Amino acid sequence: MAALLAKGAKAHGWHNALWTAARVARLIERHFRIRYHPEHVRKILNRRLGWTSQKPRRKARGRNDKEVARWVGDEFPRIVRQAWERSAYLAFLDESGFFLTPTVRRPLAPRGQRPALDAWDRRDRWSAIRCVTVSPVAGRPGLDFDLLGHNIRGPDVVRFLVELHRRLGRVTAAWDRNQIHSRAKVVKAWRAKHPGVVVEDFPGYVPGLNPDEGVWGWTKYGRLANLAAADKNELWDRVMDELIEVKFRPDLLRGFIQQTGLPGVTLAA
User: Fold this and answer.
1) What is the pTM of this model?
2) Mean pLDDT of 232-259
3) Which of 98, 96, 58, 86 has its CA nearest to residue 200?
4) H-assigned helices in the chain
5) 3-state DSSP call for residue 78?
6) Residue 169 burial (10 A CB sphere; 0-12, 13-18, 19+)
7) Between 20 and 30 A from 245 (CA), which of 64, 67, 98, 149?
8) Which structural domain, as residue segments, surrounds residue 39?
């Protein structure tokens, strides 16, 4: 059975490689002429093979794995080396949104009594621009952020870089290939006048390389899950509280950086 499962569901005729209890039940019936209920199959997989229900990691079809491996192995060590030679901070920058409509996660409740979450069904939001930083020499992790009441645009990115440059000095910023980053005219114009800020693009479709993804996931899908704020002011307060907590938790920030698997980043203990 384990050998059949190891081939993936796609090898057995399904449209993707993911296994569900219903699919495994069909597989058992097909190969062993035994019919099990999917929930019983789930228990068998858990007890005998150690399988658990897991949310799949999404992988963009436009992702080039060879290019990602080359960037991680060649480009990123160069970025780190040149940043340290300049005595510059590394800054991993990204943006995301926090909405009045809650991010729903399963709570605990008595069997058969599905809980209700009283919440707004509106897209009112705060947009967060953030960066996880690593100081030169000492390798101290940090977090800078700002909350805006509109979708983030190129001028907002410039204002954030201005403040980051004022506070930290030399910076090497790594970010994704969003239109508001390296390709934005206002960002290009500002960078041309400020050589102390160097920017580098992550390869396409690999958000997991950015440590800021950890900050976003921890706040949005962890601490703020099932938050049904009464209004935007309460949402601002809660988002700000959680980001401030992360800012003063170097253990969390180190974990977010280490989780990416990026080589060559020396972090303070």
Assistant:
1) 0.84
2) 97
3) 86
4) 2-6, 21-32, 38-49, 65-70, 76-85, 154-168, 185-192, 212-216, 232-247, 250-259
5) helix
6) middle
7) 149
8) 19-54
CA distance 60 to 70: 18
**CB environment 78-105: b (16+ within 10 A), e (fewer):** ebbeebbebebbbbbbbbbebbbebeee
8-state DSSP, 32: H
Residues contacting 230, CB < 8 A, separation 6+? none
Q: Which residue carries 């050998």 as its tokens?
A: 3
CATH for 77: 3.30.420.10
DSSP H helices, 7-147, are 21-32, 38-49, 65-70, 76-85
Paired strand residues for 141: 134
Give which of 244, 90, 255, 267 is closest to 164, Cα–Cα: 90
* Whole-Å CA distances, 193 to 13, 120, 197, 267: 57, 45, 9, 31
In the numeric block, the tokens 């303070």 are attached to: 268
DSSP annotation of 223 reads I
pLDDT at 58 over 80: no
Q: How many domains is the chain partitioned into structurally?
A: 2
Cβ neighbours around 77 below 10 Å, total: 14
Q: Cα–Cα distance between 34 and 31 in angstroms, integer?
A: 8
Distances (CA, A) of 204 to 71, 172, 178, 201: 11, 19, 9, 8
Look at residue 265 and tell me if it is in a domain: no
Cβ atoms of 220 and 98 within 8 Å: the answer is yes
83 in Cβ contact with 199 (< 8 Å): no
In a domain, residue 249? The reply is yes
Beta-carbon contacts of 11 under 8 Å, excluding residues fewer than 6 positions away, are 17
Spatial separation of the C-alpha atoms in residues 229 and 215, rounded to whole Å: 20
